[in-house]
Each structure stands twice: as C-alpha cells, then as structure tokens.
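As described in the Methods, two query proteins were run sequentially through the folding procedure within a single session, without resetting any intermediate state between them. The first query and its resulting structure tokens are shown here.
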Amino acid sequence: MPRNLVAMELAKFFGVLAHPLRVQIIEELRNRELTVNELQAALHVAHASVSQHLGIMRNNRIVIERRQGRHVYYHLRNPELAECVTQCLSFVSPDAAESAQILSAIEKAKDLWSDH
C-alpha cells in the first residue's frame, strides 16, 4: 500500500508540472524570487494567468510566497526542482537518427509540394 500512495503523490506532482507555463515559471524562479508582475513581463502572458498557475503551484507545495509590504515574492520551495527540469530535457530531445529522419521527411515534402 505505501508504494501506491507514493505513486499517487508522484503522479499528482507530475500532473502539476504538466503545463508548459508552470515549467516556464520554474525556470524563471531558478535563481531568484520574483513577483507576479515580473513573471508576467518575463513570460509575456496575462497577469491573471500567471497568478492562477502560481496558485496551483503554491497549493501543491512547489512555490512559496514571501510578502514584503504590498509586494508578494515567489520562490521555489526546493530549488533543485529547476535542475531536475533541466535534466529532463534529455528525455524529450530527439536522438540524431530521429532528427535526421524528420529533416529528410521535411525535405521530401518540400520537394513534393513545390512540384505541384
């Protein structure tokens, strides 16, 4: 039973990370804390969208907020998460053979489509 509980918690955690904007927020918070306005400017998305995603991340213990006067600063609860995200790039990067195959298919499509 403990394995099931751990698996469920990990699945929930990965589900929170499953949104591209949340991954970008993690990368922005890699080395510093930022306000919603600073994140909005860096990511070029609506203020409400950043706030909504930060709320989800806060509720799932990924970010922590710190209030200073009227400003709310966000930082990663565990800064190693940003490194983990970077390490995951190797799982989504195509290998050389796959890249060559895709590029070849693109070139063939260009040739075929430009003849018509």
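Immediately afterward, the second query was submitted; its sequence and tokens are:
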Amino acid sequence: MRKYLFGTGLLTAITGGATLLRALREHEPFTWRQALAWISWGISLALAIGAIVDIRRASRGESIADDSPIHGSESKLRRQRLARRLQAD
C-alpha cells in the first residue's frame, strides 16, 4: 500500500492541488488561467490514479491496456509480488 500512497505521481498531484487551493484563498478573481490550471491538475490526478490501477492489475496477473507505460513488464511485477508473498510466509 505504501508504494501506491507515496508514489511520485500521486504526491505531485496532491501538492499541486494544495497550491491551487492556496491560490483560491487570496481572493483574486477566477481567470481562464486558473481554470486551465484546475483542468491540468485533474488530468494529472487521473493519470496518477490510472498508473496505480495499472500497476496493481499487472502485479495480479490481469491484463492492462497496450498504451499503459508499464505494458510489457507485467511478468516482472508479478514475480516481484510473488517474491514478497513468499518472504512474508
């Protein structure tokens, strides 16, 4: 679970969201630049969550999309998961 919560993509998305929230507190008018920043943050968060889902699926032996950045390394992730499970037993 740690590798999911402390992944760099997710941490970056969370800190980016915190920065955007801080900017809202300064009582400046909402501009198109802020709208684009929020849209960009949403896309970054969705990509980070999608990567987490892909890693979890690949490590369980399930199929993942061909356009995933980890496509092709499913067997490696599965072996790592099995090795961790054997060490725990």
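The first helix runs from residue 2 to 5. We note this only descriptively and draw no conclusion about the first query from it.
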